[in-house]
Amino acid sequence: MPEPRRIGVFSIDDHEIVHAGLERLAEREPDFVFLGAAASVASAEKDALRCSPDIVMLDLFIGEEQGWSLCRDLLAASPATKVVFYTGYGNAQLVDRAMLLGASGYILKAASMSALPDMLRTVVRSGQYIDPALLKEWVDARRAVTEKPAFNERELSIVSMIAAGLDNYAIAERMNLTFHTVKFHIGKMLKKTGESNRAGLVRYAKERFLIE
Questions:
Q1: Which of the listed residues 55, 85, 129, 136 has the most CB atoms within 10 Å of its CB?
Q2: Are the C-beta atoms of residues 95 and 52 closer than 8 Å to each other?
Q3: Could you give the angle at which helices 41-51 and 68-77 cross, rounded to 10 degrees?
Q4: For the stretch 53-92, what's the b/e string if a residue is b when 16 or more beta carbons lie within 10 angstroms of its beta carbon?
Q5: pLDDT by residue for the chain (212 residues), tens digit each?
Q6: CA-to-CA distance for 205 and 212, rounded, in angstroms?
């Protein structure tokens, strides 16, 4: 009888201890196999996809970079891959952004290593797993009419450019939008966050780790 197919795991994190922990997990669990690791964004996508993993464990912060774009690129290249954010940072807006990008899970590194295999099995079996420490906050935030919503991808791009020092005209040119469209989006973000100016939007996004 052929052996049952094992769950292939690839780790993207700039901390070797995380790779080692996931490798030890796979050694203990007969239905898991550790396929490899990457410590930088530069090599991560190519190295991960070469292994054809079932799950990519992706840190939110990798050196000086964030994992959002990498998550998007991995899923665009391999839609069947399950990307799970495995990070020390978490709040409702971070979970929401991860899910909007197509991630299959969001797990805090504080989670018990003994519980992690079942969390990952749930990802494979049902397609999604949110850390219990964040799940209620995320669900409540999505249900609450008065909750400040997360920025969409266009809005995040605009806020990132504001943080980089670009004015509205430069942002419009960079994004191939009209000046008035950029102004409209900024006004919309100010209204839903309760901030009063562009600097407030940048602070709001940085405090929630939505931009670098």
A1: 85
A2: no
A3: 30
A4: bbbbbbbbebeebbbbebbeebbeebeebbbbbbbeebbb
A5: 456 679 999 999 999 999 999 999 999 999 999 999 999 888 898 899 899 999 999 999 998 888 999 999 999 999 999 999 999 999 988 998 899 899 999 999 999 999 999 999 999 999 999 999 999 888 887 765 444 556 888 999 999 999 999 999 999 999 999 999 999 999 999 988 888 999 999 988 887 778 86
A6: 9
